[in-house]
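can u pls check wat happens w/ FE2/S2 (inorganic) cluster
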Amino acid sequence: MSRTITIEPVTRIEGHARITLQLDDAGKVSDARFHLTQFRGFEKFCEGRPYREMPALTARTCGICPVSHLLASNKACDDLLSVGIPATAERLRRVMNLAQLVQSHALSFFHLSSPDLLLGWDSDPASRNIFGVMQGHPQLARDGIRLRQIGQQIIEMLGGKKIHPTWVVPGGVNEPLTAEKRDAMLALLPEGLEIAKESYAFFKTLVPKFHQEARHFGDLQTLFLSLITPEGDLEHYDGLIRITDAHGHILEDMVPPSEYQRLIGEAVEDFSYMKFPYYKPLGYPRGIYRVGPLARLNNAESCGTPYADVALAEFRTLQESGPISSSFHYHYARLVEIIFALEMMKRLLKDPQILDHRVRARARSNQNEGIGVAEAPRGTLIHHYRIDDEGLLTWMNLIIATGHNNLAMNASIRQVAEAYVDGANVQEGMLNRVEAVIRCYDPCLSCASHAFGQMPLQVDVADPTGRILATVRRG
Amino acid sequence: MPIPAPPTNVRVVTFQIDGRDYSAREDETIIEVARENGIPIPSLCYLEGLSTWGACRLCLVELAGSPRLVAACATQVAEGLQIYTDTPRLQRYRRTILELLFAERNHVCSVCVSNGHCELQALAQRYGLDHVRVPYRHVAYEVDASHEMFRVDHNRCILCTRCVRVCDEVEGAHTWDVMGRGSDCRVITDMNRPWGASDTCTSCGKCVQVCPTGALVKQGTSVGEMTKDLHFLPYITRRRHNR
Ligand code: SF4
Ligand code: SF4
Ligand code: FES
Ligand SMILES: [Fe+2]
């Protein structure tokens, strides 16, 4: 008799979702699905509003990555103004984006995933959390909290608020940086880099232990999509789109983000509110691709900062050849990116031009369509607006980082469930692995559903008739 | 602001506000005396320099010996009055009035260009309005962004008519009017044509400056950037009195 296993809510991810494991007559996993069960219709209620409200409005899709929306949205607005923003404004925005990367990656690695990595997927769920980590590895837990704080403090110094800063505006930023703030930010960076390097060195020693997980946690043959610099290096704020295949061949290169619609199609499935983007030329679902830290490192030729480049070289040795294929290594990639972000912030802040007073270009909307793309911690974030001649929004499309990974997350759940879930004897630790593979992607479901507020997830086990046999619901 | 050249034959009366003795000319309103003496009475539709409207009811005060509350902006002082400006009953009423204003239209301060510089928001903070006990109406109102320099967002309008009065009484253009009844009321420009198509609007911006909320704002402002400057109003009215 076949059965379905549902995991809901998936804990330690941002949002509310459900995983369904379909069992066949032999009790083996035959299908696995990741559903988003909430929908907010964000695009709808932005219609008719002035485009200048979009940065603040869209930032409210998420309490976790508001800065990413703020940047992508303001870039779309810059496009509507059709002005070039002052160089210093761009650098300041870059610093904010990197600080967001540090705090978001720190949250994902230390708070959400380190309990599994350090305590084990089968450990007691009651203490399998950051507090449990605090007991066994107090230094690491403290470091994680501190690292996140450093990212948040820099965002706060720039934007005046940790969450939802309004300092970034269409055309640039609304206030230049003061020398005092610059110095205060620079003073935080050495400690952050120290922590990042130590955590990275420690995690490296653990990686060989996770040989099994690396093979089953979404070891997929997919394409990788990310922004890169014109030189082909790691990029988070601007740049051009590169798509590589599972063998590292470049399929698309130096594509201006404004042409995203040529590359990306969006499929809809009735079992989830989250769309399924795919690489158009390969069709659906063959055009499966991944975004985020793993894709960015796979696509980049180099990071461009000293320690991060050493770490990148080590990252490439995780596999004998080709792009790193296992989603388990998102964790590794995150640590490399934290190092990069801290080094890059230092470089940007050390440049005296960062204090320049010219930080805002003023203009009204000069075209009716604007596209803004940036790399959010979780991957490429696309904001696309159309406005009428008076500047009121008539249409919008958001492609959220988590959305790009939808196909890959579904494939990964299936892989991990096939490897670990025994339909005859469902154990909490098995289902936790299913959840954990989702956490590799660090999905932001409140963003993906464009819903307001936080949503918690659940795993259901169902038989071929759809009858739910077991449910695990936590968080 | 003391109005220069007071008319003759006006009596001076004595009365109490919150238990303290005051005296003033009998043609002054309670709110004027309160403002001169630094007694905070909340108001939204009242604005020094404009005619009295008396619509928002936030300035309600209690008079000893009378169960009826009176609007401080529309009531003149009189000999022997005992006025109370901040009783628990008044606080309760004011809070309720504010809640109704928030429930009537769509105020999302965190994304509003007037965030941090809004009279309605400031009053809500002052009266500890952390939630609204009546259901929101959730009716979507339009935004008219047809004017070169300004924009009206009816979602944020509280129908105080300051814009109507300043445009008529100070600028002399009379572009603004109020149309409709009850909660369907809307401020309109030039017989309900788009603001940008108005023949009478001189683009002076006085209405934008006096609007207490984020309903009338300058184009090109982002969240929290719309600050208003009311200084021109007493200045203009004083000059007129001097003439
Ligand atoms: S007009 Fe005032 S109260 Fe209304 S949303 Fe804007 S800031 Fe808030
Ligand atoms: S637009 Fe502003 S000034 Fe005019 S009635 Fe509405 S809230 Fe009052
Ligand atoms: S201020 Fe008196 S009624 Fe509005
Ligand atoms: Fe998010």
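Chain B touches chain A through 19 residues (CB under 8 Å).
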